Amino acid sequence: MSSFRRTQPPLHPFDAQIDIPLKSLTLGNGVPVYIIEAGTEDVIRFECVFRAGIIKESRPLLASTANMMLTEGSVNYTAEEINETLDYYGIFLNLQAERDTASLTAYFLSRYFEKAMELFAEILFRPVFPGTELEKLMMKRLNWYRINREKVQKIAGDRFLESVFGPAHPYGRQVAEADFEGLSPSILRDFHGNFYRPEDMAVIVSGRIPDSAVTSMEKHFGHLRSEKIQSPAAESPIEGLSVKKDHISKKGAVQTAVRIGSATINKRHPDYHGLKFLNVTLGGYFGSRLMKNLREDKGYTYGIHSIVSSFDKSGLWMISTEVGRENSSKAVEEIKKEIKLLMQKPVAADEMEVVGNYMAGELVRSFDGPMAIAESFRSAWEFGLDMSYFSKMMHTIRTITPEEVLQLANTYYNIEDLYEITAG
Fold first, then answer.
1. Angle separating helix axes 388-399 and 349-365, nearest 10 degrees
2. Cβ partners under 8 Å of residue 424, min gap 6
3. What whole-number distance in Å separates Cα of residue 47 and Cα of residue 202?
4. Pairing relation of β-strands 202-207 and 92-97?
5. Quick one: three-class SS letters along 187-236?
6. In what order do the strands lie in the sheet with 43-50?
7. In whole angstroms, how far apart are CA 73 and each of 89, 328, 399?
8. Which pTM does this prediction carry?
9. With contact defined as beta carbons under 8 Å apart, do 193 and 126 qualify?
10. pLDDT for the residue 313
């Protein structure tokens, strides 16, 4: 028994085919619908997506507030009636405005599909944005803002985005207290009319789909048309700040938040899969180089992470951690040391295998069940990509070489281009 406990289980590298049970159709008014029939439970994940994210707003907080106000009253329902209906039918509803998109995502039992469609059409296309509810919401959001301004993580993160994308671009534009007072119902209605247009909506449905689903969606969404003609807004260029290093002093802070990185490529670029592999090696999982160095060896931090995010107009590479204030300079030095090592020396074969197995497992897990499949599908679809994106990712994971990783590091990791933001 003691010998058995000392023996590591054998590793069995695997490959997997990414096979998505996807069907697509178009409603009478041109709305695309993507159906993923999968799962064993009578549960539906229903999502409506609009190009109504932060990138579209003319002023801070506009996109997120318009999205959050959708359930605060409509032509035929008060806010209380909407919430009571959601509770009665056991519908879990999530409204979210991200950088490029805004969405309504709901989970409910298949037998309530018809009622859910009626309610969602009301929420999405007949909101009234009542002034009293708007005032209450903005007071709550202002309190959340003030609480977050006390957190060094939030301070450093916001300044990092501002530095990378520039204060004039929606990706980098920051919120001030005065922004919580300028919104009105008429401004929200105008934004909603411009960007929550039926013609610009896409629907993603997954789970045990009832036979009547298409008829129900056609009934409640297929006849809708916008009364407004959308005029394209002028886009601000992405212009990062010239100052690459900045520290925000926070009196009384025990820890220092560190954010290091730069703008980079997004999912549409052919190097993106390889860049993801490089990023995981550096700081994308618990056994990464940054974790081993700054957590296990030096004890500077509880956790450190490196991420590559994809936006419609750009990509973002960011390393984030929180360290004791006495170790902040040392932590930054070690981070840069690990970046330089990836630029100077090929990754060893055994480390390549570990990273590849981890990434393959995570990729397969992202298709575990109808809800995960829908989320993965959307992550490719919103960049105009099809499901071959994931097969190409698996191929890269299994075939990328140490020499290719080294080349990617020298192409996309440039110490001189990095923004270094600390707060504490």
1. 160
2. 152, 248, 249, 250, 253, 255, 256, 257, 325, 328
3. 8
4. unpaired
5. HHHHHHHHHCCHHHCEEEEEECCCCCHHHHHHHHHCCCCCCCCCCCCCCC
6. 22-26, 32-37, 202-207, 43-50, 102-109, 92-97
7. 18, 48, 53
8. 0.91
9. no
10. 95
Q: Are 161 and 238 in contact (CB under 8 A)?
A: no
* Chain length of the chain: 424
Q: Where are the domains of the chain?
A: 22-221, 245-423
Could you give the 3-state DSSP secondary structure of residue 18?
Answer: coil
Q: Which two tokens stand for residue 95?
A: 């409204």
Q: What is the pLDDT of residues 376-402, one digit of tens each?
A: 999 999 999 998 999 999 999 999 999
Cβ-contact 246, 159 below 8 angstroms: yes
- Which CATH code is given to the segment(s) 245-423? 3.30.830.10
Report whether 187 contacts 18 (CB < 8 A): no
Q: b/e for 286-295, b at 16 or more Cβ within 10 A?
A: eebbbbebbb
pLDDT in tens, 316-359: 999 999 999 899 999 999 999 999 999 999 999 999 999 999 99
Within this chain, domains 22-221 and 245-423 share the same CATH topology: yes
Tens digit of pLDDT for each residue in 413-423? 999 999 999 99
CB neighbours (10 Å) of residue 116? 23
How far CA 78 is from CA of 69, 111, 190, in Å, comes to 12, 24, 20
CA 131 – CA 129 distance, rounded (Å): 6
Q: Taking a C-beta distance cutoff of 8 angstroms, is the pair 384, 268 a contact?
A: yes
* C-alpha pair distances (Å), 206 with each of 61, 146, 234, 297: 31, 38, 36, 45
| Residue 419: HSE in the Cβ half-sphere, 13 Å Cα cutoff | 28
Does the domain at 22-221 match CATH 3.30.830.10? Answer given as yes
Sign of CA dihedral 369, 371, 374, 378: negative
Task: Return the bridge partners of 419, or none.
Answer: 261
Name the region of 166 (left: φ>0; alpha: ψ -120 to 50; beta: rest).
left
Tokens representing 244 are 């690459």
Compute the distance between CA of residue 97 and CA of residue 117 in angstroms, rounded to an integer: 21
At which residue do the structure tokens 């919430």 appear? 83
